[in-house]
Amino acid sequence: MRILDVTLKDLSQIFRDKRSLFFLVAMPIVFTLFMGFAYRGGGDEGETDMRIPLGWVNQDPDGIITQQLYEMLSKSDSVKLVELSPEIANQTLQDGDVAGVLLVPSGFSELALENPAQLTLTTDPASTPGQFLNQMLRTTVTKLMSSVEIGRLSAEAVGMLDDATEINTAFIAAASAWAQEDTAARVKIELAIGKKAESWYGDNPYNQASPGILVMFVIFGLTTSGQILLQERKSRTLQRMITTSMPAWQIILGHLLAMFGVVFLQEILLILFGQLALGVDYLRQLLAVLLISVGLGLWIAAMGLLIGVLAKDDSQVTLFSLLAMFFFSALGGTWFPLEAAGGAFAVVSRLMPSAWAMTGYQNILIRGLGLSSAWLPAAIILAYALGFFLLAVWRFRKSEV
Amino acid sequence: MKILDIAFKDLLRSTRNFFLIGMTLVAPLFITGLIYFAFGGLQSGNVSMTAIKVGVVNADTLTADAPLEVPIGKNIRDMFFDDSVKSWITASDYPDEASARTALESQEIGVAVIIPQAFTEKLLAGQTDTPILLLQDPTLTIAPGVVRDMVTSLLDGVAGGGIAFRVISERLQANGLTLDSASLPGLLERYSTWYAGFQRAFFYTPQNAALVLTSPVESGNSFQAMMGLVMAGQLIFFSFFTGAFSMMTFLQEDEEGTLARLFTTPTRRTLILTGKFLAVFLAVVIQGLVLLIIGHLLFGVHWGKPGSFILSLLGQAIAAVGLSVLLISLVKTSKQAGPVLGGGLTFLGMLSGLFTTNVKMPAAFNAIGNFTPQGWVLKAWKLTLSGAPLSQLLLPFLVLLAMGVVMFLIGAVLFRRRYA
Question: Is 0.90 exceeded by the ipTM?
Fold first, then answer.
């Protein structure tokens, strides 16, 4: 069949080009390893103390409330107090030796009894340790100030509101009661996965990194796809083929199949790499994975066809492909979780085929769902594939035929 | 001067290169723009994140002799339906855990809050064997965290009320007084009012809250700091890219034969090569300046003190030219240059932390950046963005100068041998 002849011709040209193979296979593997390493978290595996260091600048050393706060934080499993002087606190923070600095101002304990009294946490609120410190200290300060309020109310109830000793006694009693209280035990968190984990891989950071890099680099495969048609046009082979009796749609289909073949092969290689080397269980729902992968491959092939029709030279193909990769990758949630993005961005991203591809893979790998969860993502991606294909055919007819 | 003529000619040629313009200006601005679009709401404090979808299953009931009027489970349930959270929480009721799980699997909700039967009774009795179950979509991190914090905050309020009751009773007894049943509810009511106001301050008037959060950055808010780091990463990556692809003119002119013709002219080869290197240097500097200005105007990035950013930009340009000369000297044809430059620069950029500027990486990984020019440029920009004075930029600048000169000399020697 002549369609297959065109396809096989294109494939043999691509596989002779070592540069293309490098970008198609080697780079995504390296990136997957790198991003999985990053997702694993910042802690070194050899570290014995995983607590977040918190700088402690105490300008109220004799205050009873401050002493109680110090005791509460010292007993924490999640932060390690590092006592600092005010002069070096900022520099220590900038050097990264502490994740935040908690400043207890002078007279804090006295002020706290009268309200308001403020503690200052200096940290990078955009960083994960900074956010954790903020949240953790809010809970601790809430319990501390709750104890202060209970101390005041208790002193008022016994008619000794002016007696500092009575207030302190009640405060200490309340603080001790808080130390015994374990609210966290009253809330249990569970991941809702379709089935309990069958595999022995456990919590695997590559479950997120592998599909994300796969989608991103498959989109980058547009460069190879786009160049197929461009090379034919540059060498005037395309124009000669159009003069033959082979219908234009067969020429396009032949090229499309080649583009799909390359992209699909890339996907298979990355899936196998993920399965065998990284412990990502793609094979637990093989049909579902194939369904999404076929849809993704067809979409990329159709888009590659469109780029090939539109671009005038190699550099345009590369540029258009890169811009498409950035656009669809960012909006597809391969760079950062879409739940962290603003409302408008999240709304737009839900329309993107790349986001649906990620959803499809996440349904299988992270949510543990079955084949039925792949139908909708695959259908949407295929709809985009058809749309881009029709656009490419229309443009091809206009410009070449 | 011939050096300037050659430099100007090459620079002009670069500006007509659609691909180079796309990669030097369009691509970094496009990427930064996408991230700005994603997180731009943070700048104005208007955190318009995707609404959190919560499903609530409340099986909690009160016993006949319960001291409360309303079960705590209902308070928890009502918290998610309150008007004050409607703009960022979309809550739905579900009759049982099975229906909530189904909704989770079909992604109708992101978190399910399952409040068990007799929760209030067990809580007041001090038992912890019937906890509230939070079922979460495993791909989410923010929404489950927010819901967990809301539930534990409310439970802390209840616990605090219990502690207040116990402590007041103990202190009355210790002072030989009896518990006045008429005034106790008033005291507990005051505690509840205090607690609610205390918690509200964290969200609605953070500047008046008991714990005030400040950022260590010199100017601008934390969103601008984040955008600064993102833009710095893009600036560094694409500036090295610009340097390398600008140097490709060498290979292209060699392949086209114009370089050989240029060498036959009376102009010394050293002058010709210097002119070409100068063009690359100017291209990187101009690119940097344009991106810095646009970054400030469009994304509100504060680039720190003028002396510091000039030194960072110069160090970056010197290192970019040095590395470009070295890389191109190792490549024989423009066809080879693609994977060598593209792959090599991307790999180096990855190792230097350009793609993970806002991610905490292991210390061992961060140490790798000490051996790459991009790593030192990133250090310089981080210092600049944090408002560091010129004196702190001297070390990174000197290291970049040394690296740039060494790489340049090695590359220049290889070029001389090739074109001797």
Answer: no
pLDDT of res. B222:
66
The Cα–Cα gap between B85 and B99 comes to: 24
Average pLDDT value for residue range A68-74: 94
What does the angle CA B73 – CA B77 – CA B79 come to, to the nearest 5 degrees?
115
Chain A residues lying within 8 Å of B136, measured CB to CB: 189-192
For residue B158, what is the nearest residue in chain A, using CA coordinates?
A183
Contact B49 A342 (CB under 8 A): yes
Q: Find the mean pLDDT for residues A279-301.
A: 93
For residues B205 and B190, what is the distance between their CA atoms, to the nearest angstrom?
A: 20
CA distance B419 to B273: 10
Q: Distance between alpha carbon A332 and the CA centroid of its chain, in Å?
A: 10
- Asked if B225 is an interface residue toward chain A (Cβ–Cβ < 8 A), one would say yes
- How far, CA to CA in Å, does B366 sit from each of A9, A44, A213, B272, B382? 46, 11, 22, 39, 14
DSSP label of A244: S
pLDDT band of A82, cuts 50, 70, 90: very high
Instruction: Provide CATH 3.40.1710 ranges for chain B.
Output: 52-208
Sheet holding A100-104, edge to edge: A79-83, A52-58, A100-104, A119-123, B211-214
The model's pTM: 0.79
Q: Locate B24 and state its tokens.
A: 């030097």
Cβ–Cβ gap B136/A190 under 8 Å:
yes
Cβ–Cβ under 8 Å, residues A211 and A289: no
Q: For CA atoms A121, A122, A126, A132, give the dihedral sign.
A: negative
CB A138 within 8 Å of CB A100:
no
Tell me the pLDDT of chain B averaged across its residues. 84
CB A59 within 8 A of CB A85: no
What chain A holds in terms of domains, given with CATH numbers, is: 2-40+205-398 (no CATH), 52-186 (3.40.1710)
Tell whether the model's pLDDT for residue B382 goes beyond 80: yes
Query: Of A113, A150, A362, which to mutate for an interface test with B (greatest number of B Cβ within 10 Å)?
Result: A150
CB contact under 8 A, B198 and A145: yes
Structure-token match 């990329």, residue found: A300
- Cα torsion at B367, B368, B373, B378 (round to 10°)? -50
* Residue of chain B nearest A175, judged by CA positions: B163
Going from the C-alpha of A129 to that of each of A53, A118, B96, B113, B151, the distances in angstroms are: 9, 21, 36, 27, 22
Q: Which residue has the higher pLDDT, B20 or A381?
A: A381
CATH T-level assignment (fold) for domain B52-208 = abc type-2 transporter like fold (3.40.1710)
What does the H/E/C string look like for A340-369?
HCEHHHHHHHCCCHHHHHHHHHHHHHCCCC
Q: How does pLDDT run across B170-199, given as a tens digit for each residue?
A: 999 998 888 777 777 788 888 989 998 998
Beta-carbon contacts of residue B70 (< 8 Å; ≥ 6 apart): B62
- Look at strands A187-191 and B52-58 and give their pairing: unpaired
